[in-house]
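Look over this record before class:
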Amino acid sequence: MSEITLLGRGTSHQVKVGPKKKVKVHALRYVRPGERDFLKNLPVELPKKTLFLYGADSPLMPAVLRALSPEMKIDVFTNELHDKRVAEKKFAPEHNINILTGSDLQVEDDYDMLVFAPTKYFDRMLFFDTLERLNMIYPKGLSLYIVVPQERLKDFRKKIDQELRGVKIISSTRSNTLFQC
């Protein structure tokens, strides 16, 4: 079992990764159900470059991917400086995870996988805008994972179907639904 230590306060959590692995994460305050589902359903072959959208306040997914694939390039995009500061305090320099900020999502690199896991409190219009931007700027065939909380599923699903093609439900639980596009 791999172990990851984040900076800051928190407790230890054991997280299932893929079908057979487990990772123990130290100094983590909580594990969101959507993060747990995404990690359980990780692709067998991990990508070389990954971008997490608006996930700077939650270090679990980038840290686990870093532990599983030390050579992977991992970026986390946020539009809030507060989230950037929080993320920078959670990741140690050896985690080698870049925190990107900007007012709008830009194409600066060719990523193999994008992960978008908004919380139930995520702004509706920002969610819609993000899907529209993804549809415009990223190539078809890119591996995109979207974790949608059940409280927002009805509203967000309409926009997902409208903007993205080839949408598959990978996992659906009481708390969230994991889509792959």
